[in-house]
Structure formats: C-alpha cells, structure tokens
Design a protein that fits this description.
Blueprint: H1 2-14, E1 18-22, H2 27-38, E2 42-47, H3 51-62, E3 68-72, H4 78-91, E4 95-100, H5 115-136, E5 140-149, H6 153-156, H7 162-182, E6 188-194, H8 200-203, H9 207-215, H10 225-235, E7 247-250
Parallel strand pairs: 1-2, 1-4, 2-3, 4-5, 5-6, 6-7
Length: 256
Amino acid sequence: MQKKNKSMKQKKHFGRKVAVVTGAERGIGRAVVCTLAAAGMDVVIVYHKDARAGETLARELDGLGMRAIAVRADVSDFASCRNLAQAVKKEFGRCDVLVNNAGVLSDKTLAKMSKAQWDLVIRTNLDGVFNVTKHMLPLIREGGAIINISSIIGTTGNFGQTNYAASKAGIIGFTKSLSREMGRQGITVNAIAPGLIDTAMIQSVREDKRNELIKRIPAGRMGTPEEVAYLVAFLASPRARYISGAVIGIDGGLTL
C-alpha cells in the first residue's frame, strides 16, 4: 500500500505528461524512461536498432499503468525524425518533455580518425539533437521541457575524442541558444553533462583505463544511470521552471 501511495503522489506532482526519450532502450535512456514513467508520465521509447529491447521495455512500463510505446527512429536522419514526430502526434497529440539522449562513440586521435568516424559521431550526437528537436518543437506546449544529454568531455575535451568532444560541446551551445528562443514561450531548455557513468558504453573501455579514471573521481566511483535519470526528472518537473540554459554536471567531482 505504501508503494502505491508513493506512486500516486508522484503522478499528482507531474500530472499526466508525455515524455519522448531518444536512445531509450538501454543505459541512461532506459533509466530516464523508467524514472519518468514511475513518476506518472506516459513515455515514448525511441530506439534505433534494438526493437526487441524497446518493445520489451514498453510492455514492462505498461504494467505501471502508464501508456508506453516504442518507436524506431534514426536520429541522424532528418526524415526519420519527422516520422517520429508524426507518430508522437498521432498517439498523444503533444510532447511535454523531450530528452535528447541518443549518442555514439568512435574514438581515434585526429591523425588516425577517418571521415566516416567523424561523420558518424557528429551526425548522431549533434545533428540528431537538431533533427529530433526541430520536428518535435511544434508539439511542445507552454510549460514543456527540453533536456539534452551532453558530457563533461564537451567542456574539457579528451585525448582521442575530438569528434565526441565537438559533438557534445555543440549540444551545449545549441542548448544555450535555444533556451533564449523558447523562454517567452514558457519552455525550458537545459543540458546535463554526465561524467563516468556505469553503462555499456563505458564498460567497453579497457579496464585499466577505466580504473585510472575512477581514481581521479573524488567520489571514488562511477555514477549510475539512475542518478542521471533523477536529475532529468527534476528538470522535467514544475520545481525547475526557473532553470533554463543551464549545463549541469553530474560527475562525482571529476571536473573540480
């Protein structure tokens, strides 16, 4: 009973909102979708390749009493993102919270980096934010929130990640500019800059390098996807209405 009452309080706090999350079938995106659904939002799980993961998650979230749908979209493709927006409009008629989370890595020093590696990361991480937001914007009402997942690498740079750093820094500039454009419409636009978060992407990094990075974190550990999701949920809530154009780091003190 206590768990049910807590869920009801969360639903009352958010109201019946619709959240669209890209890259939502795993990692940070999955945690964000689950957190927003638990807080009383209907959710659109945007996936690219793993249909089984996206559709399985949608069925799981339906069990919470929220409407959850999985939609395939390639964020790097402008037309695909137009189709995504049309699907959201048809199913829900609006979008209250947009979380641009989809992203990829393809690391190499610039001297060894191919044009294909550069294009993959820029088109997915940066063009993807433009493509999705451009098409979703007409569906976002006053009181809505756009939350872009950047990275601390976008503020500090990193060896062997010129493409990734450029894409994530671009997201920060995009966020600050769009927040100025949307302010008078009552729509907030913020960026979150995670540090070392325990996801499959980070687990692909060699263990010795990962351990070196962890030693540099004052908190002494990696963050969890759920910790990032809690920050997203706050920025999506009415309690964060006076926060816009911000870049909020969540890195355990790594960038101190």
